Amino acid sequence: MEFEVIEHNGIKVVETIPDGASIFVGNNVLDAIAACGENRTDRLLVHVASVPAGFFDLKSGEAGEILQKLRNYRIRLALVGGVDAAAASERFSEMMIEENRQRWFHMFAASDAAVAWLANPKG
Fold it and tell me: In what order do the strands lie in the sheet with 43-47?
């Protein structure tokens, strides 16, 4: 998993480079957390192409485990890209409604909107 650091209005964001590797497999999420720490930021942008399908099915437990890890390290996550409606469970959609009321995890269609949200100190 490769990362790059982008900056928007003086705020650093660690972005995954979609390379076919899944951010949420093995130690990749820990690598993402480490990349945030090394770059002194608490903002992470991940592309849907780097997320396994199980993340969108809450029964798998992947989303809960990953989101909790990121929250433990106080890292905000923006997920960018479209998700096939058939791939996302009904419960995932319900979770996103609740998440959009908070500041830790949001989904966006485009990177520009995701970076703007991440760069907003109020979330």
Answer: 2-8, 11-17, 43-47, 76-80, 105-108
